[in-house]
Write a structure and sequence with these properties.
With 155 residues, this protein is of the alpha+beta class. The protein has two domains: 7-65, no CATH class; 81-145, Orthogonal Bundle (Arc Repressor Mutant, subunit A). 42% of the residues lie in helices and 13% in strands. A hairpin with a 2-residue loop joins strand 1 and strand 2. The protein is rod-shaped.
């Protein structure tokens, strides 16, 4: 399709880019029923909008049809098994000094009950790690993995 847009297509794309960060939610009041469906079908078939899951968004071609540059999308960091929160907890528990519930909460963003549940369920039962705890007089309870021959996060 050339950059020639109908007035309706121009209005829909312009509104989506100006008002809803590229999400198509608005249609002119003159579009009802079949006309609205045809407008959507036309925009999709010309590659100006894309329907993903429950969201309709303006595509790169839609930006270009209006003479605009599409926004640069920053890639998200992908969490791997080596960088997962479970791996973080295992690495903290492998340290000679171990880790307290509070330290693990700070590192993972979890609540204390989640940390305790992860240690009892995922680490002890699922991975079979030997987690031991100790409490110095007047200090916080510290948890550590008993043997250093522990697997990396395999869950």
């Amino acid at each position: 399709m050339s950059n020639k847009l109908t007035p309706t297509q121009h209005a829909i794309l312009s509104h989506a880019l100006a008002q809803t960060q590229g999400k198509v939610h608005w249609f002119p009041e003159t579009l009802k029923g079949g006309a609205k469906a045809k407008a959507i079908e036309s925009l999709v078939s010309h590659g100006l909008i894309s329907q993903k899951k429950r969201e309709t968004v303006v595509t790169k071609a839609g930006y270009e049809a209006l003479g605009l540059k599409p926004p640069v999308v920053e890639p998200r960091t992908v969490r791997t098994r080596e960088t997962s929160k479970q791996a973080t907890v295992i690495n903290m528990l492998k340290r000679a000094e171990g880790a307290s519930i509070e330290q693990i909460c700070a590192a993972t963003g979890w609540q204390p009950h989640t940390v305790r549940g992860a240690m009892a369920g995922a680490l002890k039962k699922k991975l079979g790690l030997d987690i031991q705890s100790s409490k110095e007089s007047g200090g916080a309870r510290t948890y550590r993995i008993a043997s250093q021959e522990t697997p990396t996060c395999q869950a």
